[in-house]
Amino acid sequence: AYRSGSDLKVIKCNDPYCAGQKSTNTVAFFPSLYGTLYGMVLGFDGNPRILYDPGTSSGNAGLKISTCADPACGSVSSSVSLTQNNTHAYLALGSDGYPIIAYSAGYINFDEMHFIKCGNSDCSSGNTDVVANLIAGAYTTMFSPFLMVGSDAKPIIFYHTADGYNNVDTFRFVHCGNANCNSNNSATVIA
């Protein structure tokens, strides 16, 4: 998946090296320069799930996830709005094959690292959105989350924080206490 001008596109290669024929399909339209592609994963059905923020003329519009109807994404079977406020996000698959998402939601005096566990394969129902970690402090921002599932089937979130007031950068690691990341999470400052 990639952004080309105001379009979100998907390329499907017909060989492992992408040397032969390819199909290119448009998945979504970005109405402004603020649109951002955050990631793509292949579902257990072989069809892509694409996480993006379409943007508005003045900034972020919130996260959306589109589920492709086929491996080449010739059409989209669903597009679901997930959030209204985000700055950075990462998409992965949970151990059950449903999408999981880590994203930062910034506010004036604190920043939150959120975790979304989709309730089904296209995130159309049963989703949960919880605060996986909160950092209080003026001018503190979280970015560049990375998300994976550990060998214990619990999500792990790694991200960077920057405290603009004290000029301190840290890397943090959150090991979720369960698959929904809603209890017994442990947060560690790495550096």
Structural account:
With 191 residues, the protein is an all-beta fold. It contains no helices and 15 strands. The protein starts with a strand and ends with a strand. The model has no long low-confidence stretch (mean pLDDT 87).
Classify the helix fraction into a percent range.
under 10%
Order of helices and strands: EEEEEEEEEEEEEEE
- Helix/strand-derived category reads mainly beta
Distance between termini? 32 Å
In terms of quaternary structure, the protein is single chain
Coarse morphology: globular
Reported for the largest beta sheet, the result is: 4 strands, antiparallel
Number of strands: 15
**Strands of the biggest beta sheet: in what spatial order?**
4-5-6-7
| Low-confidence sequence ranges | none
What is the typical, i.e. mean, pLDDT?
87
Rg on CA atoms, Å: 17 Å
Share of β-strand residues:
over 45%
Helix segment count?
0
Which properties best describe this structure?
191 residues; single chain; globular; four-stranded antiparallel β-sheet
Quick overview of this protein structure:
With 191 residues, the protein is mostly beta strands. The protein has strands at 2-4, 7-13, 22-29, 36-42, 48-53, 64-68, 76-81, 88-93, 99-106, 110-117, 128-136, 140-149, 155-163, 168-175, 186-189.
